[in-house]
């Protein structure tokens, strides 16, 4: 299980390196989630998940408030949620989630990023079947046994709990995100190193050094695209 968490950490650290870009993407994601329902996280669960994830990325309150105010007011930007699937070097698998107000631009940009970095676009469903939507939480200051006990007491349904480098990681079904979060909050745990719903690969592949370098360029190129919100893959990245 540690291999999976290491990939999440690597992905998050990569994102932390370009905060202005990440904050802008969160602004769009918060706006879209708020427009789907009430701009109130207590009544809009999708918004609540986004805001919890934004907290782990230290998104400034001003950016969050601006997106919420836009959703409450006259903001009429229309965004489509689109998922692209493809392959990287050596048959590695990649999922790209986007929010876009220009579908043609986004499709062309994503395809170009694949083609220029040793990858290729796949058809819908060609990759996603090898991933599972998963709620993931990371906390510090507790042991795995402590976490298992509090989750059992709260009757929260989780898939796995394990320790990895001074953190305890919890995997659960996506529909258990709020139940697990509430169980932690009731136990006085309100700070998470990670709290989001991801696409977790069922198996991982290891690439030779040259292929991994090319793969990392592909991921960087995709994450640099304005409309790309998340990139998931099944590569075991070597540090």
TrEMBL record:
Cellular location(s): Cytoplasm
TACO1/YebC-like N-terminal domain sequence ranges: 3-73
Sample GO molecular function, one term: DNA binding
Gene Ontology CC, one term: cytosol
TM segment ranges: none
Keyword DNA-binding set for record: yes
Gene3D superfamilies, sorted: 1.10.10.200, 3.30.70.980
Keyword terms, alphabetized: Cytoplasm, DNA-binding, Transcription, Transcription regulation
Claim: Oxidoreductase is one of the keywords in the record: no
TACO1/YebC-like second and third domain sequence ranges: 79-235
One GO biological process term: regulation of DNA-templated transcription
Family, similarity comment: Belongs to the TACO1 family. YeeN subfamily.
PANTHER family: TRANSLATIONAL ACTIVATOR OF CYTOCHROME C OXIDASE 1
Official protein name in the record: Probable transcriptional regulatory protein E5161_19035
Lineage start: Bacteria, Bacillati, Bacillota, Bacilli, Bacillales
């Amino acid at each position: 299980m540690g291999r999976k968490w290491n990939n999440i950490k690597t992905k998050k650290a990569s994102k932390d390196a370009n905060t202005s870009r990440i904050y802008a993407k969160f602004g769009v994601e918060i706006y879209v989630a708020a427009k789907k329902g009430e701009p109130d996280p207590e009544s809009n669960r999708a918004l609540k998940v986004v805001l919890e994830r934004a907290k782990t990325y230290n998104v400034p309150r001003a950016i969050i408030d601006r997106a919420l105010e836009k959703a409450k007011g006259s903001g009429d930007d229309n965004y489509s949620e689109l998922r692209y699937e493809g392959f990287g070097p050596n048959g590695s698998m990649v999922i790209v989630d986007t929010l876009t107000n220009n579908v043609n631009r986004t499709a062309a940009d994503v395809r170009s990023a694949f083609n220029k970095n040793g990858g290729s676009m796949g058809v819908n469903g060609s990759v996603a079947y090898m991933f599972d939507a998963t709620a993931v939480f990371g906390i510090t200051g507790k042991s795995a046994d402590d976490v298992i006990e509090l989750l059992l007491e709260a009757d929260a349904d989780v898939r796995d709990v394990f320790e990895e480098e001074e953190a305890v990681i919890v995997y659960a079904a996506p529909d258990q995100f709020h139940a697990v979060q509430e169980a932690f909050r009731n136990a006085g745990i309100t700070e998470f190193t990670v709290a989001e719903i991801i696409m977790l690969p069922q198996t991982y592949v290891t690439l030779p050094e040259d292929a991994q370098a090319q793969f990392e360029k592909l991921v960087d190129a995709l994450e640099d695209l304005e409309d790309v919100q998340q990139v998931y893959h099944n590569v075991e990245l070597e540090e």
